[in-house]
């Protein structure tokens, strides 16, 4: 089960005991925010892309959207999200539970600047009913990210 793989991975930082499992779905930003009682922007959503030769994850604030021009300038290709059927085989996690932990080999993780406005964010933990609260420094460390990118925009309300 994916959550067990994530807990084992997070145990390297003694964070496994902080994984939260819900009795309700947290598969979308709105559902996760409701389950946790936080604003949607605090959900660290995982956006999965095919760059042609590799799979990347951009971890962004829940209320952020990909800015196609910024994405292309950063990754030198058009933003092409993985299809529903590609997500689990390529990332190692099912749709709704994709997270920056315990990924398949070769998947690169990038953290979007949109997360920096929060002290604490909540990525999923491998299932559509799990999450973990992490500070930005904790997320930086345990995601083993390739670094920070600025590829998102926050839509006007």
Outline:
About 25% of the residues lie in helices and about 20% in strands.
Structure description:
By secondary structure, the chain is α/β, with parallel strands linked by helices. It contains 5 helices and 10 strands; from the N terminus they run αβαβββααββββαββ. β2 (44-50) and β3 (55-61) form a beta hairpin. The termini are far apart. The model has no long low-confidence stretch (mean pLDDT 95).
Notable features of this structure?
alpha/beta; 157 residues; 25% helix
Give the SSE layout:
Elements (H helix, E strand, L loop, with lengths): L1 H9 L9 E2 L7 H8 L7 E7 L4 E7 L3 E2 L1 H8 L8 H8 L16 E5 L7 E2 L8 E2 L2 E2 H7 L5 E2 L2 E2 L4
Parallel strand pairs: 3-5, 5-9
Antiparallel strand pairs: 1-7, 2-3, 4-10, 6-8
Envelope shape: globular
- Rg from C-alpha positions? 14 Å
Helical content, roughly? 25-40%
Order of helices and strands: HEHEEEHHEEEEHEE
Helix and strand content put the structural class at alpha/beta
Average pLDDT level:
95
Number of strands: 10
């Amino acid at each position: 089960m994916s959550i067990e793989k994530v807990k084992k991975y997070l145990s390297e930082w003694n964070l496994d005991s902080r994984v939260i499992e819900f009795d309700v779905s947290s598969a979308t930003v709105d559902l996760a925010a409701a389950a946790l009682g936080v604003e949607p922007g605090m959900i660290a959503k995982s956006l999965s892309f095919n760059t042609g030769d590799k799979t990347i994850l951009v971890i962004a604030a829940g209320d952020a959207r990909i800015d196609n021009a910024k994405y292309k300038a950063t990754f030198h290709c058009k933003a092409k999200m993985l299809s529903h059927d590609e997500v689990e085989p390529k990332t190692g996690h099912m749709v709704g539970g994709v997270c920056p932990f315990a990924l398949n080999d070769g998947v690169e993780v990038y953290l979007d600047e949109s997360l920096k406005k929060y002290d604490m964010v909540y990525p999923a933990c491998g299932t559509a009913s799990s999450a973990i609260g992490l500070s930005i420094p904790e997320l930086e460390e345990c995601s083993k990210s390739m670094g920070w990118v600025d590829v998102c925009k926050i839509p006007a309300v």
